[in-house]
From TrEMBL:
Protein name: Molybdopterin-binding domain of aldehyde dehydrogenase family protein
Keywords: Molybdenum, Oxidoreductase
Domain Aldehyde oxidase/xanthine dehydrogenase a/b hammerhead: 2-100
A single GO molecular function term of this UniProt record: oxidoreductase activity
One Pfam match: MoCoBD_2
UniProt xrefs under InterPro entries: Ald_Oxase/Xan_DH_a/b, Ald_Oxase/Xan_DH_a/b_sf, Ald_Oxase/xanthine_DH-like, AldOxase/xan_DH_MoCoBD1, AldOxase/xan_DH_MoCoBD2, AldOxase/xan_DH_Mopterin-bd_sf
Signal peptide (UniProt feature, chain positions): none
SUPFAM superfamilies tied to this protein: CO dehydrogenase molybdoprotein N-domain-like (SSF54665), Molybdenum cofactor-binding domain (SSF56003)
């Protein structure tokens, strides 16, 4: 059962009618599991820019005294059939006291904050770059252009919804979760902390993922609930999200409102870039959420353009929405979008051709590494050549004729282009760097007596079919027939290590 309100106190929960409904095996509420399952917390150790701790708003498996977004879990009903469970869930009686709610990060401050530890609903602030150098360059610039942009929230919504089966072995006190995750080890480790148990006694299996787009990276309350229900009932418990539940419970993406400014000299050369995103985190701090606008997005904020200095000031806010986390690109699309829209605005306001303005500030072909103003080391590229070729293939020179033809038929026609900079490694690099480490991955190769090879990897394919290139790579290096090589993934009990999979340069 899920909350119909975005923000409310829970005054009472009466599950007695649901518990006695036909086919019902158990009904769990937040009070029932408070002593056995901890909330699901963020794993990223990012602090505010002044050194103070951020506000850790962990996601409760089931709400106890307050709901904080529409779809927040209130009760979990297990029955012999899905229809019986749904019918019984409607019998759970919950008394709500509605509270004021924040619908987005720009909403006015609430009388009753979402979290007591964050009276202004700010989770953290974060700074990056050279602020003094930026201020000096903006003060001396011939031109300053500003823009405010929204990167609206997006719902991943794969065709295959999230699903999970919880299994408990009473003899060994071991838990097994079958779920369509994007990484069994990550999910296992988060759940092991929630249950306060040795990760070796919690196995996560992913037979297939279906669509993921980032939303299936994380451990979810439903994962913990099927495991806890299986432990209590001593029988497997299955859950599958409905389409509506996916909208109300899967982590979402984007949700940025950004103020940005660019400083240029009299000839249109870029001097400095200032970017100030206000980030909607949703009601809870999701497991990788701080990285999106900080360690992942910030390094590519200046693209490959020749800026002298960059400053980024992130303000991350709680709202009464579904939690936000990594989604398709995770911070890099937002950063590139802001930069390219800002350049287009500058070209329009100052009378420059958008292509020539970009060309004036792009490096020519680079065969050696160069360092962007953000500190990102770019190993090389044909930046200007790529733009020239792109515009040639798109026949930009013939666009005006096509526009006139469209106008004659009463239609509008536009032309847009952008230079997009991606960074390899993505979340793995950012997560490891935030912990002062370096990202690692692991594979185990086992040769059998009949000359076959078994490869076990910690990565997780989500439609990319990792097995084929891994088979071919091993076959080429070892001089083997690919038919004698098997690749296994999606099992935390056989792969010793695994990071979040299917990320940049891992697809």
């Amino acid at each position: 059962m899920r909350s119909p309100l975005p923000h409310a106190r829970i005054r009472r929960i009466d599950s007695s009618r649901a518990a006695s409904a036909p086919g019902v095996l158990t009904v769990l509420t937040g009070h029932d599991i408070a002593a056995t399952i901890r909330p699901l917390g963020c794993v990223i150790g990012l602090r505010s820019d002044d050194g103070t701790p951020r506000v850790d708003a962990d996601r409760a498996v089931l709400a106890v005294d307050r709901v904080r977004h529409v779809g927040d879990g209130v009760a979990f009903v297990v029955a012999e059939t899905a229809n019986q469970a749904a019918t019984a869930a409607a019998l759970v009686d919950v008394g709500y006291e509605p509270l004021p709610y924040r619908s987005d990060a720009d909403s006015p401050e609430l009388e009753v904050p979402i979290w007591a530890d964050a009276p202004d609903d700010v989770c953290f602030t974060w700074r990056f770059g050279d602020a003094p150098a930026c201020r000096a360059l903006f003060a001396s610039a011939h031109h300053v252009v500003r823009i405010t942009l929204a990167s609206p929230r997006l719902v991943p919504y794969p065709i295959e919804p999230r699903a999970a089966v919880g299994i408990y072995d009473e003899q060994t006190d071991a838990m097994t979760l079958l779920a369509n995750t994007q990484g069994v080890h990550f999910v296992r480790n988060v759940l092991a902390r929630a249950f306060d148990r040795d990760p070796r006694r919690l196995r996560v299996l992913t037979p297939a993922v279906g669509g993921g787009f980032g939303a299936k990276i994380y451990a979810y309350p439903e994962h913990a609930l099927v495991l806890e229900s299986a432990r209590r009932l001593r029988r497997p418990v299955r859950w599958t999200a409905t389409r509506s539940e996916s909208f109300l419970s899967d982590t979402q993406g984007r949700g940025h409102i950004t103020d940005a400014a660019i400083a240029l000299d009299k000839d249109g050369r870029f001097l400095a870039l200032s970017v100030r995103p206000t980030v909607d985190l949703g009601a809870y701090l999701s497991q990788l959420a701080p990285l999106t606008a900080t360690g992942v997005g910030a390094p590519v904020q200046a693209g490959a353009y020749r800026f002298q200095a960059v400053e980024i000031n992130v303000r991350a806010m709680f709202t009464n929405n579904v939690p936000v986390d990594a989604f398709r690109g995770a911070g890099r699309p937002e950063a590139n979008y802001v930069l390219e829209r800002l350049i287009d605005r500058a070209a329009r306001e100052l009378g420059f051709d958008p292509a020539l303005l970009r060309a004036r500030n792009l490096p020519a072909t680079q065969t050696r590494p160069l360092t962007a103003a953000t500190g990102l080391v770019i190993d090389g590229g044909r930046f200007l050549d790529n733009q020239i070729r792109c515009l040639d293939v798109a026949d930009r020179a013939g666009f005006e004729a096509r526009r006139r033809e469209s106008a004659a038929r009463g239609r509008l026609r536009g032309f847009g282009f952008a230079n997009y900079l991606e960074a390899n490694g993505g979340l793995q690099v950012a997560e490891a760097m935030s912990a002062g480490a370096f990202p690692v991955e692991c594979a185990t190769l086992t040769f059998s007596g009949d000359g076959c090879l078994d490869i076990v990897v910690g990565t997780q394919s989500s439609g990319q079919d990792h097995a084929v290139p891994l088979q071919r790579l091993a076959a080429e290096r070892l001089g083997m027939d690919p038919r004698h090589i098997t690749v296994r993934e999606g099992d935390s009990s056989v792969a010793p290590l695994g990071r979040v999979p299917a990320d940049p340069s891992r697809c």
